[in-house]
UniProtKB/TrEMBL annotation:
Upper taxonomic lineage: Bacteria, Pseudomonadati, Pseudomonadota, Gammaproteobacteria, Alteromonadales
Record-linked Pfam families: QSregVF_b
Highest rank taxon of the organism: Bacteria
Protein name: DUF3820 family protein
Length: 73
């Protein structure tokens, strides 16, 4: 897996819907499963959300925390 993709997963936000503005990694699993059942959005967002679901489902979210960029400065 590309490090750039992992960094994007750790730092991108949801662009629309109920969770607009929330980091992808903080989306609830229930929402991701709902979206999977409805059909993922078009790339590049859809595949990223599918990967976030796999990461969260397998308890690996902690691996993305070191990649989170601090935008407060």
């Amino acid at each position: 897996m590309e490090p750039k993709l992992l960094s994007e997963l750790a730092n991108e936000t949801m662009p629309f819907g109920k969770y607009a503005g929330q980091p992808l990694i903080r989306l609830p699993i229930a929402y991701l499963v709902w979206m999977q059942n409805k059909g993922w959005p078009a790339p590049p967002l859809g595949p990223k959300l599918a990967l976030i679901l796999e990461i969260k489902h397998n308890g690996l979210s902690y691996l993305l925390k070191p990649l989170k960029q601090d935008h407060s400065s």
